[in-house]
Write a structure and sequence with these properties.
By secondary structure, the protein is α/β, with parallel strands linked by helices. Helices cover 35% and strands 27% of the residues.
């Protein structure tokens, strides 16, 4: 397939000391829903600002549908839609006035691309006369998405579009993205929510400005190296403190009221040794149950393994 986006060795440092992006390289195929997954401060928004021509990289090269984002930025802006991480529409204009404004700005019209935005517009049209600033969080995002799509872009960038949105609206938003991809639009979405990664064709995991890996969500889960278990602890903070003394090769971390632990030795031997360790440490716990890893478990494993490797290197 043809690449919609090509990113080659992109670097960005703020104030000469804060590294936001370090040697970032990957491709996004046309028509793909591509996810950029990582915690706050990982570099997602910096990369999006560069991809959407709002920020210059210190080095590296990026092309969108063959156009260089630096030298051909005016042409690039005509083929992209962008929904930033913060609400950026005009709060004092009504829903319809905001949509009209962006249509005119892109030399388009609401009628011309109504078929593309119709599934979203049906949900917000009852509030067409309401000021945008008075909408709920979910409705604001749906309006912003309509405005980003009103000129029928070739590539759509969504920077953490569901942050601060209720769970029902999050699901609705992703259902809308599923319908958008049928129009042949390439979608690049960043998110701190690991569960949303499973809705993407491929994901790039990013941490501290570096790409940790790129693959399909199912491939990341398939390649999980440990044997994962979960159990409930009566005192999770005490448990985490004593886990530093655990003699087994394992990764462990809190997961809500539970603890997830991945063993890297033979489980038939490691599991009874672990239960004995908990007993010796006076740690009461629930049943230790084997589970399948999630994308979040995969991300944590990759990060912890990379940190362990860095600690062993001089």
């Amino acid at each position: 397939m043809t690449n919609a986006i090509t990113i080659e060795h992109v670097n960005k440092v703020y104030d000469g000391k804060v590294t936001a992006l370090k040697d970032v390289s990957f491709n996004v195929e046309e028509g793909e829903v591509f996810g950029l997954v990582g915690p706050d401060g990982a570099g997602k928004s910096t990369l999006f600002n560069i991809l959407t021509t709002l920020l210059l990289p210190d080095s590296g090269k990026i092309s969108l549908l063959g156009m260089d984002v630096i030298n051909e930025y005016k042409s690039v802006r005509q083929i992209i839609g962008y929904l930033p991480g913060v609400f950026s529409l005009y709060p004092d204009l009504s829903v319809e006035e905001n949509l009209q404004f962006f249509a005119v700005m892109y030399k388009s019209s609401i009628e011309e691309n109504m078929e593309l935005i119709r599934p979203i517009w049906k949900q917000i049209s009852p509030f067409s006369d309401r000021k945008a600033g008075k909408l709920s969080g979910g409705m604001k995002q749906k309006l912003a998405l309509c405005c980003a799509l009103i000129h029928c872009p070739k590539i759509l960038f969504l920077d953490e579009p569901t942050t601060g949105v209720d769970p029902v609206s999050r699901k609705e938003f992703w259902d809308i993205l599923k319908s958008i991809r049928t129009q042949g639009i390439t979608v690049v979405v960043s998110t701190p929510y690991m569960d949303e990664a499973t809705r993407c064709d491929r994901i790039a995991m990013i941490q501290e400005g570096q790409i940790l890996g790129i693959n399909t969500p199912s491939a990341f889960i398939r390649d999980f190296q440990g044997k994962l278990y979960t159990f409930r602890s009566e005192n999770i903070f005490s448990l985490l403190n004593i886990m530093e003394q655990c003699p087994l090769r394992c990764n462990y971390y809190p997961y809500g009221e539970h603890c997830h632990i991945a063993f890297y030795d033979d489980v038939a031997t490691a599991l009874p040794q672990f239960e004995q360790f908990l007993q010796e440490q006076g740690q009461s716990h629930g049943e230790i149950i084997a589970i399948d890893p999630s994308v979040e478990d995969c991300f944590i494993e990759i990060v912890q393994m990379r940190n362990a490797l860095n600690q062993t290197q001089p």
